[in-house]
Amino acid sequence: MSTSQQPDPRDRPARLTVGVVGAGRVGPALAASLQLAGHRPVAVSGVSDASRRRAAEMLPDVPVVPPAEVLQRADLVLLTVPDDALPGLVEGLAETGALRPGQLLVHTSGRYGAKVLDPALRAGALPLALHPAMTFTGTPVDVQRLAGCSFGVTAPQELRLAAEALVIEMGGEPEWIAEERRPLYHAALALGANHLVTLVAQSMELLREAGVSAPDRMLGPLLGAALDNALRSGDAALTGPVARGDAGTVAAHVTELRKHAPQTVAGYLAMARATADRALAHGLLKPELAEDLLGVLATGTDGAEGDAR
Predict the structure, then answer these.
(1) Buried b (16+ CB within 10 A) or exposed e, 198-216
(2) 165 vs 78: CA distance, rounded Å
(3) pLDDT digits 0-9 by tens, 117-148
(4) Are the C-beta atoms of 72 and 98 separated by less than 8 Å?
(5) Residue 76 three-state SS
(6) What is the rounded CA–CA span in Å between residue 241 and residue 268?
(7) pLDDT digits 0-9 by tens, 216-265
(8) pLDDT tens-digit profile of 25-53?
(9) What is the C-alpha separation between 32 and 37, in angstroms, rounded?
(10) Which whole number is the average pLDDT over 59-81?
């Protein structure tokens, strides 16, 4: 659904009071986005000094109160806590009787769908899973980044329009994810985004070791082009020594990594094997070149250096 397609006014949720349980990087940004859409943040909970500072910056004049009081004050409650803490939080809130019938309860976990909110549903609350497919900094820039951001949406069918309307109001684009597909959906995002950060950070460290004074400036255009090509063309965008079958070059890489950054060797070999498999499957890596390459990737050496580590 495009952000240019506005929901029917009858499907838009009424102006709501908004509460945040867990003032990490995500909750205050979403509440600030909802405020721009006309909703009214009224309460936020946060334990650490960092979360309290973040709430004060992103949601000025919104009081910091205990979670139970957030629920008392708000029509729409955002549960923005770590994934592993979410089930226990929902059960605890349900047991204390803090939830009330008709209250919208939204969690932002990528891993879970709406089922994790079943204890709240039994208490009469309305469960929504709205996961923004975005990394957050905990600063006001996050509100701007939500424009055009996809949200993984899971909710009971009767709440689907309300869920999608809230996402659109935050500037996002709703993408419906079936309950049973949430773990796979989340794994896909983690594979792409989280591992990308690790790979880029390792690459910058190695470039500094090689004497490059501004690795970020060197990598920016290269990685930007690689990402654009990958999103446009998928596996057809594969390039480099693995896709070409340059076994000698790959062996030289492994030798240098063992010498200067041994902690990166396992990751390099794993990604190179995955790249080789995809290049072979799509006809980019010639089978006659694949044998030597796969041998290097299996042993981590070109053979000439034996077991040198």
Answers:
(1) eeeebbbebbeeeeeeebe
(2) 15
(3) 999 999 999 999 999 999 999 999 999 999 99
(4) yes
(5) strand
(6) 13
(7) 999 999 999 999 999 999 999 999 999 999 999 999 999 999 999 999 99
(8) 999 999 999 999 999 999 999 888 999 89
(9) 9
(10) 95
CB 144 within 8 Å of CB 120: no
pLDDT in tens, 51-62: 989 999 999 999
Three-state secondary structure along 184-225? HHHHHHHHHHHHHHHHHHHHHHHHHHCCCCCHHHHHHHHHHH
Tokens 């290269």: give the residue: 222
Closest CA to 175 of 148, 143, 144, 206: 148
Tokens representing 18 are 């908004």
pLDDT of residue 13: 55
Tell me the H-state helices in 108-157: 118-122, 141-145
The answer to whether 105 touches 126, Cβ cutoff 8 Å, is yes
Q: Report pLDDT digits (tens) over 290-304.
A: 999 999 999 875 443
* Residue that has been written with the tokens 């040198």 in this structure: 308
Say how far apart CA 107 and CA 122 lie, in whole Å: 16
- Quote the distance between the C-alpha of residue 308 and its chain's center: 39
